[in-house]
Amino acid sequence: MCKAIIEVNNVSVDYIVGDLRNIGLKEYVMKRLTRTYNVEHFMAVNNVSFKLYQGDMLGIIGTNGAGKSTLLKVITKIMAPSDGSVTVNGNIAALLELGSGFDDDLNLKENAYLRGAMLGYTREFMDKKYPEILEFSELQAFEKRPFKQLSSGMKSRIAFSIASLIEPEILILDEVLSVGDGAFREKSEAKMKEIIKNGKITILVSHSISQIRRMCNKVLWLDKGKQIDFGEADAVCDKYERFLKEGNSEE
Question: Would you say the C-alpha torsion 126, 127, 131, 132 has a positive or negative sign?
């Protein structure tokens, strides 16, 4: 059997949300000594497991607060799990937050190079790829514009263009394709399908079930941090849509 590209084993993320969070050292010591603190735990992700193989495109679905973005941060090594493990065989390009990695005071071109550097690419590589990135984003007229003057849709375009055109082995997108006009969404989806066809892996978080059905072959459904289902896209989406219509949670 072929080797899994991404393997998530019993991953949990436990947040501390009580009095010991975001306080100074002196206050922490005093609360510990006097035992006047209250510690609460919140399981953002609770015992999630799945495997992805070459060519898979995984859609992650669930209502707000399901743990989708937290799980992506664990997969990309931004966050360490409280329990469990994640094995990734390949380099990842992740767009988890559209505004992350950009400087509002720099222009679009400068930010493209900045994002490229953050992804580990040399200036020579970006010199070669930048014209292609700019053309795909359709933002030639805004190349010298300060980033803070661009709309969220424009920022989404340049971020997606950088991540997809540098041909990562694993591409992770958190609600990125839901921003922008219809024409660019169609163009982005076509590019995603091209990446999949080349044997890469893509993980997409989206609230659009129709988009998940069109693009993904596997779906992971999370609810309040728990893994409700993982499997073939249409089957899991059917269950999720019934869940939304019924308006109650599955155990």
Answer: negative
Q: d(Cα 179, Cα 90) in Å, to the nearest integer?
A: 27
DSSP 156-178: HHHHHHHHHHT--SEEEEESGGG
DSSP conformation class of 242? H
Return d(Cα 75, Cα 173) in angstroms, integer. Answer: 12
pTM of the model: 0.77
Contact call for residues 172 and 92 (beta carbons, < 8 A): yes
Q: Which residue numbers in the chain have pLDDT < 50?
A: 249-251
Q: Which of 85, 65, 79, 70 is nearest to 11 (CA)?
A: 85
Residues 6+ apart with CB under 8 A from 149: none
Order of all β-strands in the sheet with 83-88: 83-88, 6-16, 41-52, 226-232, 218-223, 57-61, 201-205, 170-174, 92-95
Contact (Cβ atoms closer than 8 angstroms) between residue 146 and residue 106: yes
List pLDDT tens digits, range 93-148.
777 765 566 899 999 999 999 988 877 788 999 999 999 999 999 999 999 999 99
Of the CA atoms within 13 Å of residue 169, those in its CB half-sphere come to 11
CB 117 within 8 A of CB 109: no
Phi, psi of 192 (to 5 degrees): -60, -45
Report the half-sphere exposure of 115 (CA within 13 A, side-chain side): 34
Q: Helices 152-165 and 123-137: crossing angle, nearest 10°?
A: 130
